[in-house]
C-alpha cells in the first residue's frame, strides 16, 4: 500500500511505535484531522469534568459507607472488595479517560470510564500537538504539565519532606511485550523526567525510572525494583496493568501490592479504588439513583440523565429497543454484543467468562468519513477526554468502520480552529 505524504511523517515512531503496526490494514493515524472549535472542545471538557466528578463522588460514597454488599454485587470478584474499602487515597482516579459517543442531536454521552489503566497518552498529548502545528500553524498549550500533575502534586505535598531527607523513587511499569502499553508508560515517564530535570534545584534527589512489570519485587515492607545498579524501594508506582490482574501479585508473606498501598508502603497511580469507577455497573447504579431516589442534586441528576449512556443490570429495561451487552470490565470493545429491538443479535461477541455483564443503550451517531492511505473510509467517531486529578485535559478521537469501536480503530488527530 502506498503511504501518502502527510502530517504522519512528522510523528516520532519512538514515541508512537505502532504508527504502522502490521495488524492494521492502513497506518494507525488517519490523514485527515477532525477540526473542532474552541467552544466545542471546551464543551466536551466540561462534560468530562462533570461526569467524572459525579461518578467519583458516587464511587467514594459506595466505598466509604463500608457496606460490602453493593461492591460485591458490581465487582468481578469479592476478593477486591476489602482493598477498595481500605483505600484512603485523595483521588478516586488520577489519570482517567472518558469515552463518549455523540448522538445525532449533538449530545455527548459517556459509554465507558477508563479510570484504571487508560492508554492513548502519546496520541492525545503529543500526536494532537504535532497535528495542531501542521494543520493550523499553532502550538499546543503546555500539554505535558497537565499529564504529570498526579506526580508533581505528590512531590509538592505528601512527599515534600522526604525529597531531601532520603530521596524519592518514582517508578513507572508496564508489560514490555505490549508495544502500546510500553509506549504509553514511557511517554509518561519521559514527560515526568523532563520536568524533574527542568526543576533540578528542587528535585535533585527524585529518581524517575521505567520498569518491566516482571521485574518488580513485592516484599513485606513495599515494592522494589533492581535497575542494574542495585535494588531500591519504590515510593510511587505507576502501573499500566489492570488492577483485577494485579491482585494476584503478592509478597512471600501474602501481602498483595494493593494491601501494601493501603498500608502506605507504596503510593499507586492510579489508586486501588480506581477500579470501582472503571466498573461499568457504576453507570447502571448512577441511572438507578437518578431515576428512583433523591441521592443526586438537580445538577448531578441532569448530568447522569443527559451525558451518561443509559445503563442497567437488567436487559429487560431495554425491551423493544436496540441496545448493547457489555462485560463490566471489558476493554477496547472486547466482548460487546449488539441486540436488536426484536431480541436478535446483529453482532454477537464471545462471552466474557471472568465478570458480569451490563446492558447499555445503543447510541446512533452520524456517519463520518476519513482519509487513509487506503482511500476514504466511512464509519463512526468515538470521542475521549482525559481527566487528570479531576481536571479535564486533552482530547482523543478514534475512527472505526464498525458500530463497536475496538482495537482496530484508527487515531484521528484533533485540530482546534
Task: Describe the 3D structure.
This protein has 417 residues and is α+β, with helices and mostly antiparallel strands. 32% of the residues lie in helices and 25% in strands. It is built from 14 helices and 20 strands. The protein has helices at 38-64, 68-74, 81-86, 121-136, 143-147, 149-156, 160-163, 179-198, 200-203, 243-246, 257-262, 274-278, 281-292, 298-307, and strands spanning 34-36, 95-102, 108-114, 168-174, 206-212, 216-219, 222-226, 231-233, 236-239, 267-269, 311-312, 323-327, 337-339, 345-347, 357-361, 368-372, 375-388, 391-400, 410-412, 414-416. Strands 2, 3, 16, 17, 18 and 19 form a six-stranded antiparallel beta sheet that branches. Strands 11-15-12-13-14 form a five-stranded antiparallel beta sheet. Strand 6 (216-219) and strand 7 (222-226) form a beta hairpin. Helix 1 (38-64) crosses helix 14 (298-307) and helix 13 packs across helix 14 (298-307).
Amino acid at each position: 500500500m502506498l503511504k501518502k505524504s502527510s502530517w504522519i511523517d512528522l510523528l516520532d515512531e519512538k514515541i508512537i511505535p505502532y504508527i504502522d503496526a502490521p495488524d492494521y490494514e492502513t497506518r494507525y493515524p488517519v490523514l485527515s484531522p477532525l477540526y473542532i472549535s474552541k467552544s466545542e472542545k471546551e464543551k466536551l471538557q466540561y462534560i468530562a469534568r462533570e461526569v467524572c466528578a459525579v461518578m467519583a463522588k458516587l464511587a467514594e460514597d459506595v466505598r466509604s459507607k463500608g457496606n460490602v454488599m453493593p461492591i460485591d454485587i458490581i465487582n468481578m470478584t469479592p476478593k477486591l472488595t476489602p482493598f477498595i474499602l481500605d483505600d484512603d487515597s485523595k483521588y478516586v482516579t488520577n489519570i482517567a479517560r472518558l469515552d463518549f459517543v455523540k448522538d445525532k442531536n449533538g449530545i455527548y454521552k459517556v459509554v465507558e470510564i477508563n479510570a484504571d489503566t487508560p492508554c492513548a497518552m502519546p496520541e492525545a498529548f503529543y500526536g494532537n500537538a504535532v497535528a495542531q502545528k501542521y494543520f493550523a500553524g499553532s502550538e499546543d498549550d503546555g500539554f505535558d504539565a497537565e499529564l504529570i500533575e498526579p506526580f508533581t502534586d505528590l512531590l509538592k505535598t505528601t512527599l515534600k519532606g522526604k525529597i531531601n531527607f532520603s530521596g524519592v523513587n518514582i517508578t513507572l511499569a508496564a508489560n514490555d511485550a505490549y508495544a502500546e502499553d510500553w509506549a504509553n508508560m514511557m511517554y509518561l515517564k519521559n514527560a515526568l523526567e523532563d520536568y524533574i530535570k527542568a526543576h533540578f534545584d528542587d528535585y535533585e534527589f527524585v529518581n524517575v525510572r521505567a520498569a518491566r512489570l516482571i521485574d518488580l519485587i513485592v516484599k513485606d515492607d513495599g515494592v522494589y525494583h533492581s535497575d542494574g545498579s542495585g535494588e531500591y524501594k519504590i515510593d510511587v508506582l505507576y502501573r499500566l496493568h489492570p488492577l483485577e490482574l494485579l491482585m494476584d501479585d503478592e509478597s512471600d508473606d501474602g501481602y498483595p501490592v494493593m494491601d501494601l498501598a493501603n498500608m502506605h508502603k507504596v503510593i499507586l497511580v492510579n489508586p486501588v479504588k480506581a477500579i470501582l469507577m472503571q466498573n461499568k455497573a457504576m453507570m447502571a447504579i448512577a441511572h438507578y439513583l437518578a431515576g428512583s431516589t433523591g441521592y443526586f442534586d438537580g445538577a448531578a441528576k441532569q448530568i447522569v440523565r443527559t451525558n451518561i449512556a443509559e445503563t442497567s443490570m437488567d436487559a429487560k429495561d431495554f425491551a423493544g429497543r436496540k441496545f448493547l451487552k457489555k462485560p463490566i470490565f471489558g476493554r477496547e470493545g472486547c466482548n460487546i454484543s449488539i441486540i436488536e429491538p426484536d431480541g436478535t443479535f446483529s453482532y454477537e461477541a464471545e462471552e466474557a467468562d471472568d465478570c458480569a455483564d451490563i446492558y447499555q443503550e445503543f447510541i446512533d451517531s452520524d456517519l463520518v468519513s476519513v482519509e487513509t492511505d487506503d482511500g476514504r473510509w466511512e464509519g463512526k467517531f468515538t470521542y475521549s477526554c482525559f481527566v487528570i486529578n479531576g481536571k479535564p485535559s486533552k482530547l482523543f478521537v478514534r475512527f472505526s468502520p464498525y458500530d463497536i469501536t475496538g482495537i482496530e480503530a484508527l487515531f484521528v488527530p484533533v485540530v482546534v480552529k
